[in-house]
Amino acid sequence: MGRLPSRPRMVLALVSGAVMGVIVLVSVLILVPATDRPANCVRLVTSSSTEKGDLIKELADRYNAAGRTFGGRCARIESFKKTSGATMDLLAAGKWTDTEEGQPEPQVWMPSSALWLGLLEQRGKSGLIGAGQGTSLTVSPMVIAMPNVMAEALGWPHKDIGWSDLNLNSRGGWAATGRQNERWGRFTLGKDNPLRSTSGLAATIATYHAATKGNYNNIDTADAVAFVRGVEASVAYYSDDSVPFLKTLYDEDQKTDTPYISAMVMQEQMAYLYNNGAPTGDPKQLVSPVKLNRPLVSIQPKEGTLIMDHPFYTLASAAADQKDAARDFYEFMLEKPQQDRFQELGFRDRSGTASDKVLAGANAKNGGVPNRIEVPSTADLDRMLKAWEYTQRRGRILLVLDTSGSMSSPFDKNRKDPPFSTKRMDLLKPAVQKQLNLLHDDDEVGLWTFATSSSIEQVPIGKAKDVRGRISSIVDGLKPDQDTALYKTVFDASKKMQAEFDQDRINAIVLLSDGVDTEGGVTKEELLNQIDASRLDNTVRIFTIAYSPDADKGVLTEIADKSKARTYDAGNPVNVDRMFVYAFSNF
């Protein structure tokens, strides 16, 4: 990754004021709304990783209100958040086009780890980052977070736990730890997709480090492949962002005596926030936390862990005055009030030292001193990610497509310019074809379509290598017709997938619809009861894609939430194929 530059000079900015009518003088920070800043301030757009996005927004607002100047100028910070992998993809594309969230192109990028710079280098895009950048804002080690009762069943805190201890399913699941734990079923691991999330990327590196005992020359050996495959076999599904997953875990903690998931790979800071009532990273949630039935324990794998260094990058495309503004904002965030705020929200200081409050809040043992592992070279990281494509848990996926009459309408009835004026079905077909080609040959996939009354099983689920051609041919010939039996189709698809559940695969439905239920037969309440997912080891998640401005986004979100999955918004015809990639990246 390269050596990080030395720490800049610390500057402490104090704004004092007097409280009228009170004898004691108090130093206060006078907050002025950002909108009151001079209109000619330098505009600086920042993009932060999601787990610290709300904190960076808070600090940006603090900066905007502080009245700072640099060289006689001022800056106005606009802060946004996006997963590190998604931001890297947009940067590497060469032209910033955020059609999902509409974020403007940033001049500052604050990912969770400098590992992403290595992936940019791998793509030949390292020149996007300005020279001399990358100093860490704060750090947090990667941990395996477990509900305390499950960690104790594995011997925590008296026993050091590593990746090999998590391969319980080869020994019968939680029953291997005692008959009293049989009720927990299979061991389920929450892990993010390493191509999109820092936690997922760090976990993949850590498992290969454990599998090879630190000798990355052995990544492709049979023993290493078997070790990593044993870990990956426990993955419930590959989330693209652990923040929404933590919110689900937090909510489920209050509903049942059985833990929702056995373990999840995340940053220690996120475990701290979860235990203190802020699972989404929003500092405002820390005010009134819910008492958890099963707080998380932060386990640093005995084989070693990676440290997320949260670098601050100024992009090479930034104008000269924006680079000056970025430097001032960076120096502002290194000042003590802002560094204290990082630690109040569960981060360690930049040397890697954690306060007693953070260690206690994250339930970290042994003083929390990280056993750091060697960061792989760019070439080794590339080999790991390619190897992971063959060791990851395979999916069993039912693709359910809306073919009702509205699919013959223009994508957006209020627009006359292509691709908005193009028929919805015509835009959908190439997007589906592209995703079929991206599936691994050993994934299993099938196709249902639906319009009036009921669904049609176009292609039964089979190995992708065997059914890809048939599905492609059928999709190419699809013609829209009739009404939308949305509720009944999802109800029937869920029942069938549950009846044929394969515990060795990730069982899921990918549902795309452009409208609302018009057919009846099944009520929304009946549907939601059918798809309710209380456990991750034996339920079918339904990932929904809201296609076009006419889609019933509210219902599709309810369906995804009830099945503990994600919903994706394909409300822009430019990003239809990207939404399929996002949905299928969970498998």
The geometry reads as: globular
Largest sheet: 6 strands, mixed
Secondary structure tally: strands? 16
Mean pLDDT: 87
Compute the number of helices. 18
Explain this structure.
With about 575 residues, this protein is α/β, with parallel strands linked by helices. It has 18 helices and 16 strands. It has helices at about 55-65, 85-90, 115-120, 150-155, 200-210, 220-230, 240-255, 270-275, 320-335, 335-345, 355-360, 380-390, 425-440, 465-475, 485-500, 525-530, 555-560, 575-585; strands at about 40-50, 75-80, 110, 140-145, 190, 235-240, 265, 295-300, 305-310, 315, 395-400, 445-450, 455-465, 505-515, 540-545, 565-570. The strands form 3 sheets. Strands 4, 5, 6, 7, 8 and 9 form a 6-stranded mixed β-sheet that branches. A 6-stranded mixed β-sheet has the order 13-12-11-14-15-16, with helices on both faces. Strand 14 (about 505-515), helix 16 and strand 15 form a beta-alpha-beta unit. Helix 13 packs parallel to helix 18 (about 575-585). The longest helix is centred in the middle third of the chain and has 15 residues, at about 200-210. It is globular and about 65 Å long. The two termini are about 30 Å apart. Residues about 1-35 have low confidence and may be disordered.
What is the structure about, briefly put?
With 587 residues, the protein is an alpha/beta fold.
What attributes does this structure have?
16 strands, 6-stranded mixed sheet, 587 residues, alpha/beta, globular, disordered N terminus
